[in-house]
Structure formats: C-alpha cells, structure tokens
Amino acid sequence: MRPTLQTIRQQCAEQLLALYQKAHAGHIGSSLSCLEILVDLCFERMAASDVVILSKGHAAGALYATLSLSGRMPEAALDTFYQDGTLLAAHPPCSGAIKAIPFGTGSLGHGLSLACGTVFSQKFTGEKFHTYAILSDGDCNEGSTWEAALFAAHHQLAHLTVIVDLNGLQGIGYTKDILKLDPIADKWRAFGFAVAVADDGNDFASLARAHAELAHATGPRCVIARTVKGHGVSYMQDKMEWHYLPMNAVQYDQACGETRANP
Amino acid sequence: MRKDFSQWIEQFGRRESRLIFLTGDLGFGALENVSAALGPRFVNCGVSEQNMVSLAAGLARQGLRPLCYSIAPFAVFRPYEQTRLDVALHNLPVKIVGNGGGYGYGIMGASHHALEDFAVLSCLPNFACVAPLCNSDVAGAAEALFRHEGPGYLRLGLGLWPESLGALPAFQPVRQLLAARQPPKLTVAGIGPVLLNALPGLPENGVTDVFAVSQLPLPALDDALIRSVTATGQLLVVEEHAARGGLGEYLAAALAREGVSFKLHHRHAVGYPAGRYGSQSYHQKQSGLDPASLQATVTGLIA
What we know:
The complex is a heterodimer.
Chain A: H1 5-23, H2 28-33, H3 35-45, E1 51-54, H4 60-69, H5 111-120, H6 122-125, E2 131-136, H7 143-154, E3 160-166, E4 169-170, E5 173-174, H8 175-178, H9 184-190, E6 194-198, H10 204-213, E7 221-226, H11 249-261
Parallel strand pairs in A: 1-2, 2-3, 3-7, 6-7
Antiparallel strand pairs in A: 4-5
Helix pairs in contact in A: 1-3, 1-4, 1-11, 3-4, 5-7
Chain B: H1 2-15, E1 19-23, H2 32-38, E2 42-44, H3 49-61, E3 65-71, H4 72-76, H5 80-88, E4 95-99, H6 117-122, E5 128-130, H7 138-147, E6 152-156, E7 174-178, E8 186-191, H8 202-205, E9 208-213, E10 215-216, H9 223-232, E11 234-239, H10 247-257, E12 263-267, H11 280-286, H12 291-302
Parallel strand pairs in B: 1-2, 1-3, 3-4, 4-6, 5-6, 8-9, 8-11, 11-12
Antiparallel strand pairs in B: 5-10, 7-9
Helix pairs in contact in B: 1-2, 3-5
C-alpha cells in the first residue's frame, strides 16, 4: 500500500532533524515550515520532468530530505551534509551535480526569476513541464521578486506556480513588524497571478485544495501557503530563533518524539 | 560600435537559433533590425536588469544562449549579484553586452558611466570580458565572446581604426599593433578604443611597441609583449577604467609572474576629481587619456 503523504512527511521530518542534529546546525524551523509543500510537490504533484526551485534556499534540509526520499537524489549524499567536501552545503549547490537542484540559491529574491527563465524557455524549445518556485516572506521583500512577477504575468507563464511559504517570520522578527506584506494575496493577484490561499499550508488537504483551485488558470499561479515556522515541534513553532539555533540532545529527542507521535 | 554589434548579432541570430536577445528596455535606434530579424527571440524585459539576468540563467539552463543588453553600468552593476550567483557560479553561457563602457555616455553623467566593469566581472569564475578596439573590431570580438563557452561580457564603445596603419589585425586577446623600427624604448598596451588616442605620433617616433589587449582575464601573456617589456623596461598602460582591477594591474601581475623587471606607467580613468561633468573627451582629458596628454606622456618616456 502506498504510504500516505503524512507518513512520508514524518519520514522526511525525521531525516531533516537527523541531518541538522548531526551537523549541529540551524535552519530547522525554516525547513519544517515548507516541508509539507515540498512533500506535496515531490510525492503528489510533480511529473518527472517538472522542476522545483527553492528560492528560500536556507530550507535546504527539507529539500535534501524530500528529494532523497522521492528518489530524485542519491541518499548517500545526505551522509556528507555540512561536512568538508560535501555537495550539500547549508544552502543548495550551484554545481549542477544534482540534477534535481537546477540552481543554487541562498540569497533571497533569485528563485522566481530563475523559474521564469526556466518556464519561458518552453516558448523556444517546445518542451512542456511545470516549474514550482517556493518563496519565503523574506523573498517577498526583495524587489527582484516583483520584477519577475511582472514578467511572469506579462508573458502569461501558465506553467509556473509560485508557492509562498508564508510563515510570518523573517530575518529577525515578525514580517508584520518589519515590512508588512498584507494583503499578500491581493498583491500577487494585482500583479496578474491566479491566486489561491492554503489557510493551513502545513496541511496536505489545504494545499491540495489551493492547487486545485488554480488548475484551470491560463497564466501564472500563486499559492499563498499560510504556514508555521518550526511546524510540528512544539518548542520551535512560530519562534524566530529557530531560524538559527541548533538543537541540543534533549531538544532533538523531544523533536523526534513529537514527530513520531503526531504523524 | 553599437550599430556594428547590432548588424553582427542580427546575422549571428539568423544562424544560431538558440540565441535569445534580452534587453533592459534600451537600444533605441540600434536594435530595430535585431528585433525584426529575431522576432519572438527578441525580448524586452523592461527596466528590470536583475530579473533579466536571472531569467537568462534559467534560459541557459534549458539549453538556450541568452544575451542581456543594456547601457554598460545598468547591465553590469545593478544585477551584479544575479550575474555572480546565477550565471558565473553556475558557469552558464549567458552573455552580458554593455554599451558605452568607460565614459562613453559622456555628459549623461556618472550614473551612465562604467569605470569598474572589467574589475567586477573579470574576477568572477568562468567569465571572459571582451573589449573591441574599434568599430571594425566588433565582429571579431563578438565571435570570440560566443566562442567562449561560459559566461562573458562585451564592452562596446566607439572608435575608428586609423587606415594609415594598414589593415586592422584580426581579433586576438592580445595583438601587436605597432612594432618599433629601432631598438624599442617604450611598450604601450591598452584596452578598448581609448588606446587609439595613444596612436598618433607613435609610428613616427620609431621606438615604441604597441599592443592591444582585448580580453580579461588575460588568457595568456603574448611572447612578443614579454620580449618588448623586457627590452624597454617600461610599460605604459592606457585604459578607460579605474586603476583597481583593470588592465594595468592584470599586466603588472602577469609580467611579474614572468620575472620581467619593468616600470609601470598607468593612465586610467580617475573618476570625477573636480565633481564636474562633461563629454567623453572632457573626462578623458581629466584622466590624461586624451590624444594630447598621451602624446606628451609618451614623449617624456622616450626622451
């Protein structure tokens, strides 16, 4: 029997927690924020030729775990995460060594333009595939993101879906206190995107409904996924510091325990 | 050079179906023929250089050969992080074409000048910066740019080759333009059309070797250049670029690695020392890069 997305999510969460624990590294909250978005794409939505670009490259742990479990990159590479000589740094690699990671990211505001170029190429090559760009709150601060949004709408890039992992936190505080994005759905709509909101972006049914709403869009699409940073680990949830902090042994055990207890 | 380039790229685009010409909403009076020839492969991205460069990276990743065109400072500096991260570090075949390098846009002011473009682009991995010497050099330079498989930059300016010197030698990263008839006393090297300012009077003095460098980083140091500097012991470098990171520093380091002992005389763009603005000629004069200043410099060095 095919495992449920929730079961897969649990496996990926355990994998990414283990990766960060072994590396004694941060970016855990950011990875847990978009994990369901990535699992939904890699196990439910994407065809083999489809492309995902993680503009919020700091959530690389979630990307690596999901790509690995879905067979898009060798699992053995995970063993080298964060180590000298690895292909897998804290942010996705630029080397092109892993085909499922077309672009190295980590500086915000690049992903949507890269996705636009990837999609726009179809006009000249005749190939057909869908490209998904996963953006963060911080990505939506960057001017280049909105340059790309203008381009996507002008050229009616119908094979492009932006997913905004909107957890309400960015660099050193809440988005609403730093640089307000609301009304964020209206902004994307005004820029010419077909927009659907997943009120619980950490819930697979909510994500599926949002994608389904956009199924017949004739131009670029945007799913606003209202997520929780550190989702699934009680002490990390909606806590800015879990962008940065590594776990200690007790915290790691608790995070694993909660992940297994709440599949 | 802009017209020469547009004629060349029109023809190149007709034979290279993967070429996608992106412009940051510039090219009035110069690119209409390119637009007509390339049709949908000519894309005006609007005034959004950051998006244009990353977009080009996306196109290149899918096997296309994009080119990003704008005025040099807008093509180089505004999207620099996109060029560094999305293009250079991924070693993608994206070409940046900047019109009006150096003080080329003259009275338009500092926002429209590009005095540090070679410095910031030539240090990026996999990048080749190409600078035609004169208008008739554009086709050869552009061919070289596209022969380079990785990312590259073409700096366009304006300059006429003096027919009195005979035929322009075919494009090479380093070319000897003039050989001394007597034992040489001075080696002159320059990049881009500003080198043409140094040429008047040099054939007559008979003791000056002149080299045009048209690509940075230098793929290799020309043997004739090494021999010349070894013999003269003094090198005058002429460039419409900031002192830091330009041809002078490249040549000084390369010759030092060869163990050549010489004195470097460097004429370069000095920026805006008086906070005043003018034509390209005005700024060249301020920098000692106009024909009269360069002739005086040469006269002093060979005396």
